[in-house]
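User: quick one - fold this with uridine-5'-diphosphate bound?
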Amino acid sequence: MQPRYKRILLKLSGEALMGEGGQNGYEPLNHSIIAQYAKEIKAVAAEGVEVALVIGGGNIYRGMNEAETGIERAHGDYMGMLATVINGMALQAGLEKEGVFTRLQSAIKMEQIAEPYIRRRAIRHLEKHRVVIFGAGTGNPYFTTDTAGSLRAIEIKADVILKGTRVDGIYTADPEKDAAATKYETITFRECINKNLKVMDMTAFTLCMENSLPIIVFDMNKPGNLMKVVMGERVGTLVQG
Ligand code: UDP
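Assistant: Sure. Structure tokens for the protein plus uridine-5'-diphosphate:
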């Protein structure tokens, strides 16, 4: 069976990497989760799929809470962007342990650890079947890593953005609160807006809609799910025009 998609952008949240235990019951990087993700990504790359990754930073730092922290929003956002680079490095190490060739590109220059983000270079890496990890979000405060994911996906002409989450798709209501909630298999961008369903923040969502980039929301923590999505099986929810 041939993969449905030739080039994907996988967006993972930083929080997904978090584990329990460690010091004070908090462990920002759970290495068994990272190893699991690395295996899943390796498997789809082995099918010939070109994989780009964007990872959040919420397990380490989120910049948006000026009132609570007293740290200016833009300043905190830069701290958040640095957190995504730490996560990117952790995933890079996990992937390389599995024998997958990777490149980390950062939207904020830090030449000792990452290439600067250069679109054409990223595409070249993908063509050579290296997994490209985009760190430091968009490089701008007041954005999110979802927006970075949408932006990079469009720039590299990915066929789809895969948003790996803890829930297995988009529901009519919050399934954790409403037992009667049902899952959409497919939904249009317009319906999401009309029904006020939060798939991504508005900036990220609008970028996808305006550029006809389909989004699949799926549960990344279920082993084998990433492969199923890539093979075109009905997993999660597909958002399209
Ligand atoms: N961030 C930013 N610009 C970007 C991407 C991220 O300022 O382009 C900052 C922002 O403060 C955000 C933090 O980095 O809160 C971590 O990213 P995010 O909250 O999107 O991570 P996730 O929720 O996916 O773990």
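One thing worth noting: Residues 73-97 form the longest helix (25 residues).
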